[in-house]
TrEMBL record:
Signal sequence interval, chain numbering: none
Full-sequence portion shown in this chain: 461 to 752 of 754
Lineage: Bacteria, Pseudomonadati, Pseudomonadota, Betaproteobacteria, Burkholderiales
Keyword vocabulary terms for this entry: Phosphoprotein
Name under which the protein is recorded: EAL domain-containing protein
Top-level lineage group: Bacteria
Chain ranges of the EAL domain: 24-278
Length: 292
């Protein structure tokens, strides 16, 4: 009987997997088609100084609108692309597009602007990775110091010895590195210290939990302190409210990214938003000034 029950369960399981696999295959096929038809594009989300609100840079975020106009979120298609060589080609497209946009922003006079690009493990592992970073910078004419690569904490910990080696080469180019989704990937502290990164991005789960409970507040505090004590810049992602901004600022967090400041947006919108920065600063200063 046990055997029968087992067989029943495994039949159910494989049937479910079959549907899943077919669906994944369809999605991947659609993604490949969309990529070839130039239906993938980037949005950019500003990263700001938490104390002053001044824009320091932006993160490039990949977007896919399929042939029916349906928006498919990156959390759904990137893991899929990562299972095929497609991620390498898409990743290169992201890197180059972001670098050319960075060039436009620098040309518009926003010196020091930092463009952050997400890199997945398969890209990182690819033999041509460093070359593709270098040629994206060369072809767009951006300095390495204005480019940042984001790798998730789980990637960084998956293969620390290998990652350490590539990161060293990346750093030699002058490109900065951020650990993304920090706090979710069970970093070993000694590993973290060995990876010479520039920035820790606190996952938005901690930003939300910082206010939800005392335990959440304690964890958020510890994560910020950890980053600071390693001498890193700490940036919090997913800041949606003024209370969250204030809370993280009080904890000693340096930078922020989230809907409170700006949504991910098309390049032209980001450029317009940057152009209005002076007016926003003046308005903020006026609002903060004592009423006479
Ligand atoms: P991520 O790198 O951690 O990016 C931050 C995510 O948080 C983005 O989701 C962004 O839209 C979202 N977000 C920003 N501010 C807020 C906020 O205030 N509230 C909330 N609730 N969410 C906020 P998105 O764009 O859906 O991207 C999801 C993930 O997909 C990214 O997480 C990243 O891991 C991956 N991804 C996106 N673009 C790329 C890419 O070009 N290459 C690779 N390898 N991965 C990418
Ligand atoms: Mg990221
Ligand atoms: Mg993140
Ligand atoms: Mg994430």
């Amino acid at each position: 009987r046990a055997k029968q029950a087992h067989r029943g369960a495994s039949q159910y399981f494989s049937a479910a997997m079959g549907t899943d696999a077919r669906e994944r295959f369809k999605l991947l096929k659609g993604l490949r088609m969309s990529f070839e038809d130039n239906r993938l594009f980037l949005n950019y989300q500003p990263q700001v100084d938490l104390a002053t609100g001044r824009c320091l840079g932006a993160e490039a975020l990949l977007r896919w609108r399929d042939e029916h106009g349906k928006f498919i979120p990156p959390d759904q298609f990137i893991p899929l692309a990562e299972q095929s060589s497609l991620i390498v080609h898409i990743g290169e497209f992201v890197l180059r597009t972001a670098c050319f946009e960075l060039r436009r922003i620098l040309d518009a006079g926003h010196a020091g602007f930092r463009m952050a690009v997400n890199i997945s493990l398969a890209q990182f592992r690819h033999a041509n990775f460093l070359n593709s970073v270098q040629s994206a910078m060369r072809d767009s004419g951006v300095p390495a110091t204005n480019l940042e690569l984001e790798i998730t904490e789980s990637i960084a910990m998956e293969d620390p010895t290998f990652i350490l080696r590539v990161l060293e080469e990346v750093k030699q180019l002058g490109v900065t590195v951020a650990i993304d989704d920090f706090g979710t990937g069970f970093s070993s502290l000694s590993q973290l210290r060995r990876l010479k990164v520039d920035r820790l991005k606190i996952d938005r789960a901690f930003v939300q939990e910082a206010q939800a409970s005392e335990a959440g507040a304690t964890i958020a505090m510890m994560v910020v302190n950890l980053g600071r004590s390693l001498g890193l810049t700490v940036i919090a992602e997913g800041i949606e409210t003024e209370e969250q901004r204030q809370h993280l600022l009080n904890l000693g967090c340096h930078e922020g990214q989230g809907w409170l400041f700006a949504r991910p947006q098309p390049a032209e919108q980001l450029e317009a938003w940057l152009a209005q920065e002076g007016e926003r600063a003046a308005a903020a200063a006026a609002a903060a000034a004592p009423i006479s």
